[in-house]
Amino acid sequence: MTTVRPAAVAGSFYPSAAQQLGAAVAGHLSAAPESAKSGVDRPPKMLVVPHAGYVYSGDVAALAYGPLARWRERIRRVVLLGPVHRVAVRGLAAPTVEAFETPLGRVPLDRAALEALRGLPQVGFSDLPHAHEHSLEVQLPFLQTVLGSGFTLVPLAVGQADPQQVAQVLERLWGWEDTLIVISSDLSHYLPYAQAQARDEATVQRILHFAIDLRGEEACGASPLNGALLVARRHGLVPRLLGLRNSADAAGMTRADRHRVVGYGAIAFDPPRVTARAQDEGGEDEENDENGDASLGRSLLGTARRSIAEVLGLQHAGADIDTGHPALARPGASFVTLHGADGRLRGCIGRLQAVRPLIEDVHANARAAAFHDSRFTPLRTHEWPGLQVEVSVLGEAQPLSLANEAEARAALRPGVDGVIFEWRHARATFLPQVWQQLPDAGDFLAALRHKAGLASDFWSAEVRLSRYRVRSYADAALPGAAA
Question: For position 286, what pLDDT does the model report?
């Protein structure tokens, strides 16, 4: 039997009748200015939204939720964190039910994702903190309206938890572009209007600069927000302030309402932009949107070679590295692939997500590929003269919506797509270069599953596939393919 957490604050924080609730949400969404609705060309990775009664904070929340409608086919999971107001919680509380309900219907929970948190000591499983908590519930009608019924929910009530504890949970749930993280928090409480404005403006600036020491008097969701900011900074997310108001700014409020106000802010955190190799289906390179692409390639290859040479105790023979290219300082995800003089693979290490400046990522991955790839012995000095280096800069992964393996084989573009395979805790990727060895999509997927530690013919409805493209730079013609 399906167990459901019923709506607890319908009729107080928002209308209890479905028709009236739908009209209220639509009204708030329509009140957002056109500039807010246009958004950017990618969905945000994280949102900060208020959780007061809709009459007070609904218009501010709509600034964050409105642009999501264009991404309703892409966002498949929402990780929702909010503070507890009625029950003391040490750490984070995960529910045991299978769905949360509002007057607009039921939202299924991602039980597999919640179960994946059981090994974390800061996460407990209890429905009591969720039973009457409004900070999570008030977000659901907005999500149901803009995303429809095609998403699952991971709701977590956050009590006494430090930023590292929250960040560890979010890292485990981070996912790809199909996963949206929502942090529910109001700002200052019950200050006079002018004082509240000043306090909230200062708090927003701290949030935009990734402060992780926010206090409860600045934001009631400080505990989840501090942890979220820590992990957002690690992943290079880019913050955007969408709106900042308080309860006295809401329609119908009087001058008397200005003596004790509550602050509300809406903030989006966008994924970083990464320079990627763009190829069409025929395999021809398109023009890169970065000026000085050849210079970028020389800098990346020089960085990789120098980082290896330093460990070997060799004086790097190449020209000085030009560190002035703007892409080097931006967050980037890369793989460094090494081949020996005989063309055989000698090491390949990288990251799938941009969490540090590109030049630092290449530096670290080059050393890891040369000396810490568990498939090979550490690189030795006598191998240096014939060493061939390739640096691949990854674009953002795009999740694929697939019903079965046949659809997966049909969707993949040989020679173009790098592919990420995920099933529960199993995960593996192949760069696009692997298509040179495995040009058939069926063989490609079979080898990828084997790399993930699964049977080569394994398939499940829970399998997630994402694809990405790369821009690769090589300092020699490579007879083999990267693995």
Answer: 39
Question: DSSP label at 104?
Answer: T
- Among 466, 473, 159, 421, smallest CA distance to 295 is for 473
Q: Parse the chain into domains and list their residue ranges.
A: 18-270, 293-474
Looking at the chain, how many residues does it have? Answer: 483
Helix (H, G, I), strand (E, B) or coil at 388: strand
How deeply is 324 buried, as exposed, middle or buried, from its count of CB atoms within 10 A (0-12, 13-18, 19+)?
A: exposed
Identify the pLDDT of residue 314. Answer: 80
What is the rounded CA–CA span in Å between residue 470 and residue 288? 11
Name the token pair of 11. 């009729």
Between CA 30 and CA 26 the distance in angstroms is: 6
Q: Which two tokens stand for residue 389?
A: 């280096």
Q: Taking a C-beta distance cutoff of 8 angstroms, is the pair 128, 87 a contact?
A: yes
Residue type, 242: L
- Burial track 120-141 (b if 16+ CB lie within 10 A, e otherwise): eebbbeeeebbeebbbbbbbbb
Q: Report pLDDT digits (tens) over 264-277.
A: 999 999 986 543 33
Rounded distance between C-alpha atoms, residue 402 and residue 405, angstroms = 8
Are the C-beta atoms of 394 and 334 separated by less than 8 Å?
yes
Out of 3.40.50.150, 3.40.190.290, 3.30.420.40, 3.30.700.20, which CATH number does the structure's domain 293-474 have?
A: 3.30.700.20
d(CA 139, CA 146): 11
3-state secondary structure 156-198: EEECECCHHHHHHHHHHHCCCCCEEEEEECCCCEEECHHHHHH
**φ and ψ at residue 264, rounded to 5 degrees:** -135, 130
Percent of the chain scored above 90 by pLDDT? Answer: 61
If you write DSSP's letter for every residue of 240-282 in order, what string do you get?
EEEEEEEGGGSTT--GGGGSSEEEEEEEEEEPPP-----B-TT
Q: What is the CATH number of domain 18-270?
A: 3.40.830.10
Residue 283 in this model has a pLDDT that exceeds 50: no
380 contact partners, CB below 8 Å, separation of at least 6: 312
**What are the C-alpha distances in Å from 165 to residues 45, 168, 179, 195, 216?**
20, 5, 20, 32, 17
